[in-house]
Amino acid sequence: xxxxxxxxxxxxxxxxxxxxxxxxxxxxxxxxxxxxxxxxxxxxxxxxxxxxxxxxxxxxxxxxxxxxxxxxxxxxxxxxxxxxxxxxxxxxxxxxxxxxxxxxxxxxxxxxxxxxxxxxxxxxxxxxxxxxxxxxxxxxxxxxxxxxxxxxxxxxxxxxxxxxxxxxxxxxxxxxxxxxxxxxxxxxxxxxxxxxxxxxxxxxxxxxxxxxxxxxxxxxxxxxxxxxxxx
Length: 231
What we know:
By secondary structure, this protein is an alpha/beta fold. The protein contains 6 helices and 12 strands.
């Protein structure tokens, strides 16, 4: 079963209006919806923000439902001039840039006892997302997506992330979701629409453009469901 992961229900409201769904019993701080697209059932989960919320919500969903595929959706901040506002990022990999055990001899972003420092997305799911972007006429890139429990709003930090990880955008969820998917052997992909540049004007841009970026993401997501289930 497909699991669509987002931090907040606002990022799937438009999608839910187009399909049948029922709200399910869910843990504190989390919202789960059982959805139906043309007689295909899938789960949408709004995990809330923060790694603890994300991890516990995903664990609950995977224990309750037969989750076989995960897709993380939402918006992101660009740290690459090529990723313009309202363009999409379909990352080839995700990571957590606020993880730093390098003094102990680990790679940047690597957590002890985890033999990966970044988490590869699934090529078949990526291809499906690319086709959906093309149908919607939306530009996209395949940059690395870097995550943390913070909102990046300054040039110094964004430039450092770009240099250290060769990342193209930052968000608060996809690296954590990628790690969970890797640890549980679940194919995983992600799509993020750029809502702002991760610089000193980031908050102002986010407040101006995040709603529209979310709408774009949901249009692509609806096309993704058609592509995914009709393959």
